[in-house]
Amino acid sequence: MEAVLSHLREAIERGDYAVGDKLPSEAELCRRLEVSRPVLREALRALQTMGLTASRTGKGTFVISSGPVEDPTFGDYAASDLLEVRRHVEIPVAGYAAVRRSAEDLDHLSHLLERMERETDTTAWVAMDTLFHLAVAQAARNPVFRRVIEEIRDALARQSAFLNELGGRREQSNREHRAIVEALADGSEHDAVEAMTHHLERVETTLTSIVRPATADDRTTVPTEGGQQA
Fold first, then answer.
1. Bridge partners (DSSP) listed for residue 13
2. pLDDT score, position 216
3. Which of 103, 141, 170, 192 meets the CB 3.0–4.6 Å disulfide criterion with 183?
4. What is the pLDDT of residues 139-178, one digit of tens each?
5. What local confidence, expressed as pLDDT, does residue 219 receive?
6. Which residues, 6+ apart, have CB-to-CB distance to 166 below 8 Å?
7. What are the domain boundaries of the chain?
8. Which pLDDT band, with edges at 50, 70 and 90, does 109 fall under?
9. What is the DSSP letter of 212?
């Protein structure tokens, strides 16, 4: 899927498909790229999330931007808006959860984390990822916090799937979740806040690396013989 997405994105950014152009049909793209329809559809969904294309019912997929798009949309929310809210809600929530959580909360979070660490299916993992963040909010013992996370739950799931499919975030995210649970178990408000802050920072870093890949000018130059730069 990553290869298909990269191929289509580069074609759009090169101008092979200009803004306003319609992409070839799914059947034609599957034939050209020699991939299955499910793989192609995942790549097309990622293009839409990144704001490069839009699907028009009964008409097909059209290019709407030559990119790069720096602020993709997940469901009803732009990534920047989603991250801003998460920083202002989930970081303090983790601190509250550390001092208010019950034994039942810790058991639930630990069991959920163990399942996530064993899970290999992205769809199933993403579903548990949103449940994990809901469970942390529940442990903070303020129903308003949980309601806020419920409101953005669909966007969180879409973002999680995007990051895991294109950024390989699952194992790293599991480690970050483990640090959050350990801080809650220790009852350390400071450590819980630090762990959630680190988690959200990594989410933002991975997202940025996907939507704004390094250009030749961004890469470190390597000296060659004669002092020239490669």
1. none
2. 40
3. 192
4. 999 999 999 999 999 999 999 988 988 888 899 999 999 9
5. 39
6. 2, 5, 46, 210
7. 1-63, 73-211
8. very high
9. S
User: DSSP string covering the chain, please?
Assistant: -HHHHHHHHHHHHHTSS-TTPBPPPHHHHHHHHT--HHHHHHHHHHHHHTTSEEEETTTEEEE---S--SS-EETTEEHHHHHHHHHHHHHHHHHHHHHH--HHHHHHHHHHHHHHHH---HHHHHHHHHHHHHHHHHHTT-HHHHHHHHHTHHHHHHHHHHHHHHH--HHHHHHHHHHHHHHHHHT-HHHHHHHHHHHHHHHHHHHHHHHS---TTTSPP-B-GGG-B-
**What dotted CATH number matches 1-63?**
1.10.10.10
Instruction: Please tell me if the domain spanning 1-63 has the same topology as the one spanning 73-211.
Output: no
Q: Which amino acid is at 161?
A: A
Q: What does the pLDDT look like over 24-79, one tens digit per residue?
A: 999 999 999 999 998 898 889 888 888 888 888 888 999 988 876 778 889 889 99
Quote the CATH superfamily of domain 73-211: GntR ligand-binding domain-like (1.20.120.530)
